[in-house]
Description:
Helix content: 40-55%
CATH architecture: 3-Layer(aba) Sandwich
Amino acid sequence: MRRIAILNQKGGVGKTTTSVNLGAALARAGKRVCILDLDPQAHSTTHLGIEPDGRTPSMYDVLIDNKPLAEVRQQIDDNLWLVGSDINLAAAEVELAGVVGREVILRDLLATDLPSPSGRGVGGEGGFDFVLMDCAPSLGVLTLNALCAASEVFIPLQPHFLALHGLSKLLETTSLVAKRINPHVRVTGVILCMCEANTRLAQEVERDLNEFLSGSRTQNVPWNQARVFDARIRRNIKLAEAPSFGKSIFAYAPSCHGAEDYLALAMEVLGEPMPKVVSAKVKKISSAEFQEAQG
């Protein structure tokens, strides 16, 4: 199981959009995906059509009351599940302040308490192919839980100059977690979101980012093998509209550029080539079908 924290302490960079639509793309490729909404704003929950009313069991009940994840998750689509959030999660930062081992609560739950959605087998390692954690725009207890539970970190980044400034703090936090709690966590890559690739600014930011990552190859840091994903998430109005309809981009506008971009990202995450027949994204497709379309 790949446990991926989608993380950036800066808001508005595409964390939720990436969590939901990458998860939906992976699910359509036949992978079993569970999205954990770790943001009290509950944007992933709303994006997937669930009302964060504070009455439905959520990540708050998981972290505070040790409610099993299997009892909280909801199936959204074939191969896609959600453990939702609501405003109550904002209180978790305070309520967990005096709890010993508060940073590893989620890690322990994922290891022992996420049985297979098919009902066969027990334990997070056998239950899902991917767990995607949509993190809050902060570096508090909730985000630390995600970093301690994750094996990988994806960083959505808008290609603007100021976005690079916050990156160093995020990488510093990841390094501290790797040294003290979770030595297995690695930054896999940076996802460029809301791209306007033809602008000079975007090209300069991408060049600086690649130079920084290349300079880290010989260092003993969690991002020494990180890369900028080849897939670029272009500005697309359909991506902005989809949450208001409670749908992923594949359910809302499967033929738009946003769906195409997230499909390309999913294939890159899976290590598979993009099919020549891009229209294949509108249906549920297996890895074998992608290979056949490529041929």
